[in-house]
Design a protein that fits this description.
By secondary structure, this protein is an alpha/beta fold. The chain has 2 domains: 217 residues, Alpha-Beta Complex (Spore Coat Polysaccharide Biosynthesis Protein SpsA, Chain A); 43 residues. It has 9 helices and 11 strands. Strands 1, 2, 3, 4, 5, 6, 7, 8, 9, 10 and 11 form an 11-stranded mixed β-sheet that branches. It is globular, with a radius of gyration of 18 Å. This is Teichuronic acid biosynthesis glycosyltransferase TuaG.
Length: 261
């Protein structure tokens, strides 16, 4: 096991061989789903990975679960902070220690299919893309599933009109891009990062194979959508720097995409 205290940044054992893929997993009170998420990484047919779990001040058993898994698998790194910093900051702390050529993302309540990394890394090597994404399945608490298909590629202007890149499917090439961090805003930090990468390196490439499962948590869907819409507007205006007219046009396109997808 490699365990890192955020206050010191010091690991408790010797470094492992350099992995090809660093998987970033922020955790906050996810004891009910964390084991399944970790096992979905351990079940990958592609074995050259490290899993960096950042426990962001969990009050439940999340930290113990993460450390128990790390004790049996040296590819798992556990980082921790006593104070909740938010999902973007947690991801960024993990990215800061990533060793892999590729950086991938998986939340503690989501899952990967076993061939996810094998298929996607082969796709990245084939295309030379700096950022890729795949189709995925949305599964609600009743077990109902809906597949989100993805386009072959998405450029900056198209991406502005609606985020088609599921965070649980995204992988970027750290050797091409350097360490790319998410802006530490409450929501839409992943969307903002994809826009930054696409602006810098050109279109992201989509692999239209269902390779991940997003588990939709129960709650007020309408309230979440309202909050997400407000945060998308703020991201357009404050992070991307769009004018009111540009932000309004792209937000309208974004909302229409959500209605019809």
């Amino acid at each position: 096991m490699r365990s890192v205290n955020e206050s010191t940044g010091v690991g408790d054992c010797e470094a492992d061989p350099v992995p090809s893929v660093s998987v970033v997993m922020p955790v906050r009170d996810a004891a009910a789903t964390l084991t399944d998420a970790i096992r979905s990484v351990q079940s990958q047919t592609f074995s050259g990975w490290e899993l960096i779990i950042f426990d962001d001040g969990s009050k439940d058993a999340s930290r113990r679960i993460a450390e128990d898994h790390a004790a049996g698998d040296q590819r798992i790194v556990v980082m921790r902070s006593e104070a909740g910093q938010g999902a973007a900051a947690a991801r960024n702390r993990a990215i800061s220690v990533a060793k892999g050529k590729y950086v991938a993302f998986l939340d503690a309540d989501d899952l990967w299919l076993p061939e996810k990394l094998e298929r996607q890394i082969a796709f990245m090597r084939q295309t030379g893309a700096a950022l890729t994404f795949t189709a995925y399945c949305r599964r609600d608490s009743a077990g109902r599933e809906r597949v989100r298909q993805v386009p072959k590629h998405v450029d900056y202007e198209t991406l502005l009109r609606g985020n088609v890149i599921g965070c649980l499917t995204a992988v970027y090439d750290r050797e091409k891009l350097g360490r790319k961090y998410m802006p530490e805003i409450r929501r839409r930090h992943d969307f903002a990062l994809w826009l930054e990468i696409v602006m810098q390196s050109g279109p992201a490439q989509g692999l239209n194979e269902t390779l991940a499962v997003h588990r939709v948590r129960p709650g007020s869907l309408s309230a979440n959508r309202i909050a997400a819409t407000i945060d998308t507007w703020r991201m357009y205006r404050e992070r991307i720097g769009l004018s009111r007219w540009q932000a309004g046009r792209n937000l309208a396109a974004h909302l229409m995409q959500r209605v019809f997808r």
